[in-house]
Design a protein that fits this description.
Largest interface: A-B, 27 and 27 residues
Oligomer: homodimer
Number of helices of chain A: 13
Distance between the termini of chain A: 16 Å
Strand content of chain A: 15-25%
Chain lengths: 318, 318
């Protein structure tokens, strides 16, 4: 079975670990979000790609969900001693090495997709991880500061401001001109099923879908497309998805998230059992829907979620 | 008193510490060798400038003579886990931060001299440290490997090969087209005395003198120029200066090192007491010479050496 998964950071990475446990024989291609990539200290940092790579490769800081286990922060402390920031972004020494390798390869002319493959040669994530695009796409968030509207990098909004001010718009800058990375459209065309993990529908999966050609390829693939709600009981399970959903005019409910993707894209949608009342509405909108436990409390629980998604895919594909 | 010092790495840095102790009120300008600069992992590394900065700023690894005290090597180990080398160059985590700041500033358009000033704002070395040039000069060493002649970067010759094969030539690539960094010629013109520490006459001070304009400015400054021999009893005190002296056809003796600079440049020369027999020959060549203890065993011993150099400068200047 060939499975394509669109993935953001923590949610996508944890779902993928469950999916691998559920379907160890499947050939999984992950199309990773690069809209939250950022240049820090002159280095190219790809938080979502690295979270997937570290999580599936056994290097992740488990409790935190991002960054490396057993991390130290000597380089960052030294940079601060030079008065060089930002200090709000947590780059550890082990993590720095990844960004140094990546930046060096990019400077040498390698596209991000080739760099990602090279990094994965070490981590052996057990999936094929491809960035959504080799072109630079940068998610910016429009906010109002002292009555003035300004755009900040997604990481600044998310990590520094902790989404504490309302997002007025979310713009994947550069997306219109970006091309899917080599292998992305091919993987979609050859997929048996396409999954949207319980990731942020706007800044994670939404950014991937904003790369011209990817949404169309998924819609035209002719295979089941099944998503899992990142919203449980009216609130995001993790993170601050509600803040950016509001910015695009979407209510923070499991049903609204499904409607945001639309029946032209989604064939099936899983909501949590606490949102069972939403099932009928989602189905009325033309999307097959089931209510199952959606908390990724363990690899086993996540594997059950992945199995439910694949079962629903078989149903809608029948 | 305004003192200009041409400095390589360890020898120059230790001498400067003694000079500062001997003349705490002097205004010292250090013209630093950048011929051994190297790009590693996409970062610009300036070993000699950093050795001076760390030594005078209190951050040096004392026993080693280079690199930071209390250093860790997490980044380097992680790079090696990615299969990315070279492993023969010892870059620690603290040190990495310096190179990250430098590389980021250079990418932003700052010349190396401005970057060095910015880094020194943290270290407060108590001297004005200026790279010899903002232009790239790279010392290459010609060697023979399996009957074939090839040129390697100085660091590869020195650190990886540990000067274990004969150097056939030492070439400061790019020197002819390099310009002295802003402030270099001005400092020389305004100096009351110019000192050559017991640094390598070929790959440290020789490289600085290879930048067009610097040798001429020193010769024309009309102030005493005094050097200290890095060769004691026919062998370098530290390092492998004899290997590169041979490459330029110079014997490894205190007298030959003085002759290498020449009486057109040097007014005075200090040799160690064990080389007292060389004094007459050096003087016959037109360079005032004294034999004094030249082992930099402590800051105090080095301060005495600096005082001897300044005394000799007063003598030749009288």
């Amino acid at each position: 079975m060939r499975i394509v998964v669109l993935a953001g950071g923590i949610g996508g990475a944890r779902f993928l670990r469950g999916l691998k446990a559920a379907e160890p024989e499947a050939e999984i291609t992950v199309i990773g979000n690069t809209g939250d990539d950022i240049h820090l200290f002159g280095l190219k940092v790809c938080p979502d790609l690295d979270t997937v790579m570290y999580t599936l490769g056994g290097g992740i800081h488990e409790e935190q969900g991002w960054g490396r286990a057993g991390e130290s922060f000597t380089v960052k402390e030294e940079l601060a001693a030079y008065g060089v920031g930002p200090e709000w972004f947590g780059l550890g020494d082990r993590d720095f090495a990844t960004h140094i390798v990546r930046t060096q390869m990019i400077a040498a002319g390698y596209p991000l997709s080739a760099v990602t493959e090279a990094l994965c040669a070490r981590w052996k994530p057990g999936v094929r991880l491809i960035p959504m695009s080799d072109d630079r796409v940068e998610t910016h968030v429009a906010i109002e500061v002292d009555g003035e509207r300004k755009a900040v990098h997604f990481q600044e909004y998310w990590v520094r401001l902790r989404a504490s001010v309302p997002a007025q718009a979310v713009v994947p800058v550069g997306a219109e001109g970006a091309k899917p990375a080599p292998g992305v459209l091919e993987a979609i065309a050859e997929a048996d099923v396409i999954l949207f993990p319980p990731s942020n529908p706007v800044v994670s999966i939404g950014t991937i879908l904003a790369v011209p050609g990817i949404r169309e390829a998924i819609a035209e693939a002719g295979v089941p497309v099944v998503g899992l709600s990142p919203i449980i009981g009216g609130a995001p399970v993790r993170g601050m998805a509600d803040k950016v959903l509001a910015a695009v005019g979407v209510e923070s409910t499991a049903a609204a998230a499904a409607a945001h993707y639309g029946s032209g894209l989604l064939d099936g949608w899983l909501v949590d059992t606490v949102d069972a009342a939403a099932v009928a509405g989602v189905e009325a909108a033309g999307i097959r829907c089931r209510a199952v436990p959606l908390l990724m409390e363990s690899v086993e629980a996540t594997a059950r979620m992945a199995r439910e998604a694949l079962t629903l895919a078989r149903e809608v594909g029948a």
